[in-house]
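Following the same procedure, sequence and fold were stored together, as reproduced here.

>
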Amino acid sequence: MTKGFVRIIFLVIGWLNVVLGVIGIFTPILPTTPFLLLAFWCFSKSSPKFAEWLENHPWFGPPIRDWQKNRAISLRAKCLASSMMACSSGLLFFLPVRPYVRWVLIGTMAAVGLFIVTRKTARPRTTPRIPEDVSP
């Protein structure tokens, strides 16, 4: 395979993961951050321009930077992911799926949840305060 072909494959996989990450924002079963991290990795192999865009994106950039710098996940993301996986696991008992499928999905979500909650917690992002009038 040529270098250009491999670059195109990484670009396609990167954009596919961006799309899946965006879909994950609106669906409780599909995660967002892992897809965006994979997209960032693919873009870093194929297009530094897209990797930089993703890293500096106002919504997607902060979790990527937290993971890149500290291998950390924000407390908000941990709580949101854990609660969505718990709700999804509960919903599986009301859906007509085979028991082994239900338990495989619940087990997978439990393993992912355990991974998430055992990662370091990223410090909350604060915006620098501009001091009020400091004249005496």
Observations:
- The chain has six helices and two strands.
- The beta strands are 72-74, 120-122.
- The radius of gyration is 19 Å.
- The first helix runs from residue 3 to 26.
